[in-house]
Specification:
GO terms for molecular function: gibberellin 2-beta-dioxygenase activity; L-ascorbic acid binding; metal ion binding. The protein is α+β, with helices and mostly antiparallel strands. It is built from 8 helices and 16 strands. Bound molecules: gibberellin A4.
C-alpha cells in the first residue's frame, strides 16, 4: 500500500488503489439471543478479532437520541466547538488525532466514562447547558457497557474460563479506565474526482483496551485488515454493533485472539457519525495471559500494568504496533 499526500486537501493521508466500494459479506454475525453464540464469538475473535452483534439489549432510542445530540454539537460553529478543545486527550479534537502528529478527515469528542470526571468535565467540554447531551451519553454508555460485559462473559464461557466474569469485572470496576468517543467524518467532495484514491478519516490502528463497541449511522467508511493482508469494507448498519478485540484482550488470551487493525475512509457525499465505547481495565491492573488459557505455554508478553501500556501507547503513532514493545524476545 502506498501512502501519499494529495495537494489540495493539504497534508491529509491518502490510501491508493483501494477498492473501497466492494463490501465484504463475511463479517461474523452474532445473534445474542441464540444459545450457541458463545462458541461463535470465540471463533470470530480468533479469526477476525471483529464481529457484528444483532438482537442486543441496547434500546434504539438511546442510539438515536445520542446521534441527534451529537449532530447538534458537530453542527455548531467551529469557534463554539473549539471551546471544548483541544483534546488533551479528552475534549473536542479536529483533524489532529493523539499527541504525535497523526491527522485525519475527522472531528471528535473524547470523554472518560468515569462518572465523577463526567460531571465536571461535561460542563467545561460541552458548554453551559450540557445536561441533555450528558444524559444521552450516560444512558447510551451504561447500556453499551452492560452489553459489552455480557459479551465478555459469553466469551469466558466459550473459552471455558472460570469465573465467567474474569474479563467483565474489569469493565465493571468503578476504577475501570474506559473511554467514549464520538467521531464525525464530514463529507469531502474534493475526493470524488480521484477514483482510485481514498482520503483517510481515521488512520489504521488497533485499540489498546480490552474490547471496543462501535455504532455508526448508515454511512460506509469502516475497514478492517484481514489476516491475509487485505483491507475489506464493512457494510454500515445503524441497528447493530461492531465489536473489536483490543490489544489487552490479545495479551490476556496469550495471542489466541488478535486485536483487529482497522481504519475509516472519508466519504465524498455523506457524513459519517460513529460512537465508540472502549472498555478498559483499572490503571493498576496487571495485563497478563490468564493461567487457564496457557496449557503449559509460555507467556508471549512481558509483565505490565494497564497504566504502563497506556503511557507507552500515548508515545506511539496511530499505525504503530504498540504491543511489540511488550513482547518477549
Ligand atoms: C486508539 C483507540 C481510541 O480511539 C483512543 C485513541 C487515542 C487518542 O485518540 O487519544 C490514541 C490511539 C487510541 C492509540 C495511540 C495513541 C492514543 C491516539 C494515539 C496516537 C482514545 C485510545 O485509547 O487509543
Amino acid at each position: 500500500m502506498v501512502i501519499l499526500t494529495k495537494p489540495g486537501i493539504d497534508h491529509f493521508p491518502i490510501v491508493k488503489n483501494c477498492k473501497s466500494s466492494s463490501f465484504f459479506n463475511g463479517v461474523p454475525l452474532i445473534d445474542l439471543s441464540k444459545p450457541d453464540s458463545k462458541n461463535l464469538i470465540v471463533k470470530a475473535c480468533e479469526e477476525f478479532g471483529f464481529f457484528k452483534v444483532i438482537n442486543h439489549s441496547v434500546p434504539m432510542e438511546f442510539m438515536t437520541k445520542l446521534e441527534s445530540e451529537a449532530i447538534k454539537f458537530f453542527s455548531s460553529p467551529l469557534s463554539e466547538k473549539q471551546k471544548a478543545g483541544p483534546a488533551d486527550p479528552f475534549g473536542y479534537g479536529n483533524k489532529k488525532i493523539g499527541p504525535n502528529g497523526d491527522v485525519g478527515w475527522v472531528e471528535y469528542i473524547l470523554l472518560s466514562t468515569n462518572s465523577e470526571f463526567n460531571y465536571q468535565k461535561f460542563a467545561s467540554i460541552l458548554g453551559v447547558n450540557p445536561e441533555t447531551i450528558r444524559t444521552a451519553v450516560n444512558d447510551y454508555v451504561s447500556a453499551v457497557k452492560k452489553m459489552a460485559c455480557e459479551i465478555l462473559e459469553m466469551l469466558a464461557e466459550g473459552l471455558n474460563i472460570h469465573p465467567r466474569n474474569v474479563f467483565s469485572k474489569l469493565l465493571m470496576d468503578e476504577k475501570s479506565d474506559s473511554v467514549f468517543r464520538l467521531n464525525h467524518y464530514p463529507p469531502c467532495p474534493e475526493i470524488q474526482q480521484f477514483s482510485d484514491n481514498n482520503l483517510i478519516g481515521f488512520g489504521e490502528h488497533t485499540d489498546p483496551q480490552i474490547i471496543s463497541v462501535l455504532r455508526s449511522n448508515n454511512t460506509c467508511g469502516l475497514q478492517i485488515l484481514l489476516k491475509n493482508g487485505h483491507w475489506i469494507s464493512v457494510p454500515p448498519d445503524p441497528n447493530s454493533f461492531f465489536i473489536n478485540v483490543g490489544d489487552s484482550l490479545q495479551v490476556m488470551t496469550n495471542g489466541r485472539f488478535k486485536s483487529v487493525r482497522h481504519r475509516v475512509l472519508a466519504n465524498s457525499v455523506k457524513s459519517r457519525l460513529s460512537m465508540i465505547y472502549f472498555g478498559g481495565p483499572p490503571l493498576s491492573e496487571k495485563i497478563a495471559p490468564l493461567a487457564s488459557l496457557m496449557e503449559g505455554e509460555e507467556s508471549l508478553y512481558k509483565e505490565f500494568t494497564w497504566f504502563e501500556y497506556k503511557k507507552s501507547a500515548y508515545k506511539t503513532r496511530l499505525a504503530d504496533n504498540r504491543l511489540v514493545l511488550f513482547e518477549k524476545v
